[in-house]
Amino acid sequence: MTLGLNRNNPWDLETRHVPWMGLLADQPKDGPLAFETLLEGIRAGVRVCYTYQERSWNTPRKFVYDFADPKRDPVEQYLANVCEWTTHAPDDVLNFRDVKVMVSWARGVWRQEQGLAAITAAGITDAQIYAGIALAEDD
Fold it and tell me: Where are the domains of the chain?
């Protein structure tokens, strides 16, 4: 299992200045944040997507250019991969509040961040993603 999945963080979020729901008190010094539950980790990434949408960073290109870590992932390849896996063009406007879009987008980003084998092995269900979305909606 990958570090992000071990930390209940399939998005590999590292933004330490946000008081995320479910963030463990004893955080690792580097790498992805650690959440108490997978649903809280999913929720955090969904909240990021909602924030990006509010800022009009809701195309795959704008999302990836801000979200991806260029030290770890070549950004153009990240963009190409996520677009291929989600069947969105780089400049398609995404509505992250549409559950189908959010589920597809989450799975594409997670595949890039964690790798297909790790995501498959983790067995994250659509029901878990829906529950993470519902947590994000309750804010």
Answer: 38-137
